[in-house]
Amino acid sequence: MTRTNGKVPGGPVLSVEDLAVAYKIRGGEIEAVQDVTFDIQRGEAHGIVGESGCGKSTVTWAILNFLGANGYVKRGSIKFLGQELVGRSGEELRRLRGDQIAMVYQDPMQALNPSMRLGDQMKEVLTVHRGLSDKEAEKRCISMLERVYMPDAANVMHRFPHQISGGQQQRVVIAMALLNNPALLIMDEPTTALDVTVEAAVLDLIAELRRDFDTGILFISHNLGVVARVCNKVGVMYAGEMVEVALTEDIYKDPQHPYTQGLIRCVPKLGSDKASSTLYPIRGRVPPPNNRPPGCVYGPRCDYVRDHCREARPELRTLPNSVQVRCHYAEEIDPSQWQPSEDILPPKIRQNGDQEEYIIQVKDLKKYYEVQGSSLKDVIGMGEPRYVKAVENASFNVPKGKTLGIVGESGCGKSTLIKTIIGLEDSTSGEAQFLGLDITGDLTTRTEQLIQELQMVFQNPDSTMNPSYTVGQQIARPMLRFGTVPKNQVREEVVKLLNLMRLGANYFDRLPRQLSGGEKQRVGIARALASRPDLVLCDEPVSALDVSVQAAVLNLLLEVQAEYGTTMIFIAHDLSVVRFFSDYVAVMYLGQIMEIGPADAIYALPYHPYTEALLSAVPIPDPSAKQKRIRLEGSVPSAISPPSGCRFNTRCPRRHLLPDGGKICETETPPWQEDERGHRIFCHIPRETLLTFEPVIQTKERAV
Amino acid sequence: MLVKDVMTRHPIMVPPEMSAAEAEHIMTENLIRHLPVVGDGKKLVGLVTRQRFALKPDTMASLNVWEITRYLSNLTVQKIMLSAKAGEVYSIDSNRTVEQAARVMTEHKIGCLPVLDDDVVVGILSEIDLLRSLQEMLGLPTRGVRVTMRMPNKKGQFAALTTALSQHNLGIMGIGSFPTPRQPGFYDMVLKIPEVSMEQVREILSQVPEQEIVDIHEE
Fold first, then answer.
1. N or C: which end of chain B has fewer CB within 10 A?
2. Which of B12, B132, B136 shows the shortest C-beta gap to A82?
3. A3 to chain B: which residues are within 8 Å by CB?
4. Could you give the C-alpha distances from B202 to B145, B180, B215, in angstroms and in order?
5. Do A1 and B133 touch (CB under 8 A)?
6. Residue B127 belongs to a domain with what CATH number?
């Protein structure tokens, strides 16, 4: 049944008005959140997006009164089902909220008790809040697990959290949150820790539950694509303020606030590449709450800033098209006329021709890990050795100065593959040559010069830097170690690198804790470049970063590549980023490369069925785009005993296209089907049939 | 159409210990006329309606200003509500049909029914919800031709009507029927037909044998 209009009887589930949250600190207090106003109707999903440090989570903590000992709601009101939450005592709040507000957080493992069986944890919700009998509670838990599409629900009740996968854990958390039929569900980055295929399934589930239970959802995410998929209304937060609130279609089609426009420009569109499009980061960064500028908080980063913006703080006002925006000049700004200012102008990409010279050649590379069995036979060493086949027959070549992107779900062997290349692991068999030198062994077998030529950028800059070394020392270390630079010129060289990273010489003596996440990652890149390597391996270098910082780091890597002609192998789970950044792309599944070729060929027909499923799961920041909905059943099989024939056969949605329901997929290893451009697909389905599929994504401009 | 499809989910609810003044404030502020009272685990305890706030004049008359204040401040929801335990509240299961709910409400002349699943309040069904479902049943939000056909109470009449429409590639987006008042043996059927002109509908439906067009509207 459709609602006749936006006005829903009974008033909003949650209504937040002029909320200001302050934290007491030594010598005063800081207002982390100011003047936030929004409301959520029954059955509505309200998204909040913004960079980290904008106060998104603080808003949810204020609703739940989780602000901690030094935080409090300074002004404004939070009304839940018409009743004021601010200024109530703990006991009153507990009764008021009772079982009516539920939460789902980013990491499902932290929300579940690792030492209790899942069934017991779930039943507790019902036996404590509702006083149901154990048997009745069990029955309801199982039906709720089935509702969230948990395979084998009755059995899952007897398992411990570590015995199910991450996506399943998040399903349990969502099922648990819904057991009491809450009026409001608060989700703080619920899918950020999940794989793109699992994420897509969880997002589908959230959208469906919202319809069925009429639950209001407050959905927090930094990912614009995810928000576009679930929410019908979006609020954009910047530096503790709500700068724009609008319907989802409006915000992506016609963003009003310069910050929203900037955020959308930061994200690579699926299907765009580095030659035809550019990413524009937002210059500067979010001001800390104790040092916000007077006037408009976004003023210092805004391209349209005028004197009036520096003096008067804009109010959140409603435009004629019912979009709320906090900008003095929203009507006058036309984003199509926008020109990037000089300091964020990305580097010109040199197309350094099609060099046929391969810098790295890998053929049939295998990496097996032996697993220790637990039976007595295994303990005394009589058992059959078993192996995790982490990488199976990987073959690829990367030309000099080009980038190979590797995508795939977690556990598919992406990281193992590059660890084997860099020498952190030795390979089991196969050939791998770097500039003609054999690199199949681990580090101990390599010469210092070889080690110098291969460097790596890691995902999490925090855990890869020594916290007690200054930035300068960290970058200088590889230079001294490999002797690439004479000792007396090291400082000069480090400063040169820092400048290239747009950090400046004053960063030389800083410690890692004095840097922001994006700056740390730049130092990580500078360190990898310090030894002037020919090949840089990047393992998810931007996935821990905010979108605007991600755009800046990607631009920087492109600049480095243009400057030094460095070859890169780039791992990321974000398919739009990989498409944007790479010349060649390899798609991996369960240790096996399924499809490899030039980037544009991977993202266009013909697809390998697995690539097709991956593409259909990518969240697209464009609500008008049509996307085919393919969801893989089940989870990735164990790499100890991978399925016979094609490894993807147990989950392949296309095998019915072959005779006998794809019997051949189980019995025979598929052939490599190659075209003249070097695009190879590892599948039994003939190329001609693969070509007849519909494109996965159709936007107004182009089909991907 | 079942109660659970029509009801308002997640209604505002209050505990029995809340003061009556606060409950009154919540009702006024949120423009609602019924307030389910729930205990632990959202179990139904009672119901507060507007009328329950009308205090008896004879109670008040014997009190002076100070006593009135004290009386009011001690007045809790528990004291003024219709009690579920005493059987004063009619409620309905969420899987019952809408018409059964409407019948309970008309029979007892009441304005709302708390909706329960095993004693737990999952929603509330008020007159307004039923009126909204009536609109939607007859396809109000979308524009089209609304026509009332009178037909004898015989088998095959509705089939004749839909056949006539389908031959002209027309669909029905809202439908309802009721016995013709004061004319036993006949039924009136209301249809909402989108994307068509009134004249066209009149022409097609006047061809249906044994039936007549009682009323035709464009809205």
1. C
2. B12
3. none
4. 10, 20, 10
5. yes
6. 3.10.580.10
